[in-house]
Amino acid sequence: MTRTRRTRLSLALSTLLFVAACGGGGAPSDEPDGPPPLAVDEELRALLPEEVRDAGTLTIATEPSYPPASSFAADGRTIIGFEPDLGAALGELLGVRIEFRAEGFDTVLDGLSEGDYDAVMSSMTDTPERRANADFVNYFRAGSAIVIARGNPLGIHDLGGLCGETVAVESGTLHVDVLARGQRNCGNQPIVVIESSSNDDALLELRTGRAGAVLTDYPPAVVASTDERTQAFFQLASDVQYEPGLYGIAVARDRAALRDALAGALTSLVRSGHYQHVLDDWDVGSGGVSVVTVNGGAV
After folding, report:
1. Which CATH number is 33-142+247-287 given?
2. For residue range 43-101, what is the model confidence (pLDDT) as tens digits?
3. Rounded to whole angstroms, how far apart are CA atoms 121 and 12?
4. Which of 24, 98, 102, 140 is the least buried, fewest Cβ under 10 Å from its Cβ?
């Protein structure tokens, strides 16, 4: 959420200049500006599989069209967001370098099973169906939200308002299932669903008028409706989050040692306050978890 972070920096600088100009001030704050410092935890590092310790690198796949979780920076190559920031912190504790790799969401678990990367951290909700192929270290909670055109020309306010409309979603996401369940209440006015290859492509369907709404996760929905580059085109239908669930870092089921190392490191980040600092820095603190679970999603 680069706009918010730039705004926060500008406000801080303005305040500093005002105080300096007025000659005011007092005792400087003792609160640190950044998150608590991190160092390698040798007990957690020992939990890592030997091949990961030897390689010194952990590769994590993500679909980078989901700000503020994971998205491309202005250079079009660097993946930024609260997921890469949390990943980097996990790497510091485990003594390995974290590399985020862009992958398509609808096939990302297939690549995990085939050993193409070590883990998936891509705003993926932990569900029984997905747990058939992976274990999940839960790190965030969010639900679905409806994005509509600015001004709400179709008068959409809730899921019921999607009946008879065309709705774009990212392929492979739970939003496809949410719409399928919503169809039951639509009678002879079904929802026409467009499945797009990314969240960005789904939003493009809305912006160009080929869709009347987008169903996506609440955090990227908020970004689309508030970012200075897109807020003229999009708004939220409401602040309701439909069917909220736990995101999880997906790890292949035959790599329990890696799963446990990640769960232990994430627990350490939560306890130290580093985890909450990262979420607050991306303005998603309300979605944080207080206890790290494994496979703690819906049953």
Report:
1. 3.40.190.10
2. 999 999 999 999 999 999 999 999 999 999 999 999 999 999 999 999 999 999 999 99
3. 32
4. 24
